[in-house]
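Can anyone check this?
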Amino acid sequence: MLGFRRNAQGAACLGRSTVRELLASAGTSTPAYLYDLDAIRKTAEDLETALGPEPHLAAYAMKANSAGTILRTLRAAGLGADVVSGGELALALASGFSADQILMSGVAKSDAELDQAIGAGIFAIQVESVEEIERVAARARALGRRARVSIRVNPDVAIDSHEKISTGHKYAKFGVPLADMPRAFASIDREPELLAGVGISVHIGSMMTKPEPYQRAARCVAELARARRESSTTLEYVDFGGGIGIDYGGAPAEPLAAFARAARQVMRELGVADLKLVMEPGRSLVGPHGILAANVIGTKQTATGRFLLLDAGMNDLVRPAMYGANHRVEPADWEPGPGDWRVVGPVCESSDDFGTHAIGERAPELVVIRDAGAYAFTMASEYNARPLPAELFVSDGQIVSVSASPGVTSWVERRLKA
């Protein structure tokens, strides 16, 4: 009984408890996120099994969901961490990840963040330009340390995804273009006392539902690695990135393990199977295993249709407003059925709209917004002076941890001091 399901009466459940029971046991008001830790752990364990006994590092992309309880769950399952800021690096270390399990990505790392990463001795800093290689070398010289770096290549591989989450095409801000890779390698080789070029990496975007584009990018990296070994003795790994999608309803996605197996196949075919394989899954580990619970404030009937008004809005879950993303909105107490409602939130923006969903002819009191375990709370805001939603962490049908927002009063105090 892992993940979201419905019981015999049709009520929405996580594990063996209904969402209503979990909210009541926590004494928490809505909006509230709920996460199934057992399902997250099982997904991570399945990935580790698929990666096999060969050297590997599954580095969880913390930007997807940075809750400490989830980080500790994934660390215990054997995963590392992919961070994109100094704050995430500090959180990863505080959550128990060892420095040699941590990668740092991102196109605009500050000098302070580079110093933090070099000083901690992390597994690798993933550089995104020739200019950044020079900056890392300068910071390593200032610290009297040798930095471990990996070059993120931009392979100009397009994927069938939203333009705002496609990162591997030639117009993206991410990565070193293929034509500039010789110059990037030369820049590392000029500073052998300061830089160790330990990896070549790629990340072409998010929401890949099949392994084929992932394999195309992986082949590019594997070919570069095979050639690079002829002139370098420091290369340790290839990193094929993340971006593995999930089924948000009606668009099935291959499981994470299928991408791991595809990555292994590419390494064998290209003769680099002896290198460590690194992957950076995020959404695929946590996305399906979180929901956002919201109370229905009221209804509204107009000549064009009927609205279901929630206490959760785009400040709590911004993906529909930002990406046009579709998250299934369903009654918490019964199965969704015929009877469409346009579901909207309280924020004073027209984009605060979760779309039209089959709810049933009568309006529910409580709804669940599904597949909200990734890029949800981490992107939430206090817009309109609305407090951040609570987070409830569930294991074996019981609440094991609660993280609650400080509320509007604290927001008012902070803004008064601004």
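Reply from J.R.: I decoded it. The chain has two domains: 4-36+287-417, 105-281.
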